[in-house]
Design goal:
The protein is mainly β. It is built from two helices and 17 strands.
Length: 251
């Protein structure tokens, strides 16, 4: 891409010049500086259609006005190898950006891109594409995750976390399960529910007869219907897009 021939000429201060403040020095420097360039209007063609003179720069317009916000300066030059007028996209390949789109199809045409594959010369196809590594994920800076137990340090380009989680027995806090029973029921020779009469009210083990079997609670009683709980914090669908190999806008 051509470099514009522009030069900034600093001012000449008199001997003994001593500004009272740094701000005054900056003001004097900028007010006395001069901008010099060998670029003249006869070397830039401002028009809608592609020029036939390939030795000049082309400021491309649409209907006589600046057409769109890309590239930063719509200044095209004749690329002899490609044999076409081109302007380079300002973002480098593999640059990432988070943007919000109405649908996936809008990504292909973002910033003047086109639907289709990218050719080896980098003159057709989209400028941006979805980076699948971020599908369904939120970004987080690498480092120690505050409050994580057990402690976790997120590595560079590491995938971590899940959308839901099924609790294990060791993750359930201490709690009680009340026992409701008909007070008239006596269950065999080793468990008796007493609500009146002799003895205290409550559940007795070995309350009548020989206590030959211990009272036990079945483990994983609800495993058949146990469901994972969601752990995703509130999010909004945005797209992490990455610059493709396409380089040039075509004039």
């Amino acid at each position: 891409m051509p470099v514009l021939p522009v030069q900034i000429i600093a001012p000449t201060f008199a001997d003994g010049y001593c500004p009272p403040t740094a701000q005054q020095f900056a003001n004097d420097l900028l007010s006395g500086a001069q901008l010099s360039s060998s670029l003249t209007l006869d070397k830039v063609l401002v028009q809608d259609s592609a020029p036939s003179d390939h030795t000049k720069l082309w400021f491309k317009t649409v209907g006589g006005t600046y057409p769109f916000p890309y590239p930063n300066i719509p200044l095209y030059y004749w690329h002899t190898g490609l044999a076409m007028w081109v302007a380079r996209h300002p973002a480098d390949e593999f640059t990432h950006r988070w943007e919000e789109f109405a649908n996936a199809a809008d990504i292909d045409t973002y910033e003047g891109g086109e639907v289709g594959a990218i050719n080896p010369n980098g003159t057709t196809g989209p400028f941006w594409a979805i980076d699948p590594a971020y599908n369904g994920r939120s970004p987080m800076s690498p480092g120690a995750i505050s409050g994580s137990s057990p402690a976790k340090t997120l590595g560079y380009r590491e995938d971590y976390g899940s959308g839901s989680h099924t609790q294990g027995a060791e993750e359930v806090g201490p709690h009680v399960h009340p026992l409701n029973a008909d007070p008239s029921i006596e269950s065999g020779d080793n468990i008796k529910v007493v609500s009146s009469g002799s003895g205290g009210t409550g559940l007795l083990i070995g309350g009548s007869g020989a206590a030959s079997t211990d009272l036990s609670v079945l483990t994983n009683k609800y495993s058949a219907t146990q469901q994972a709980m969601p752990v995703v914090h509130p999010v909004r669908g945005m797209s992490c897009v990455v610059r493709t190999a396409r380089i040039w806008y075509r004039g």
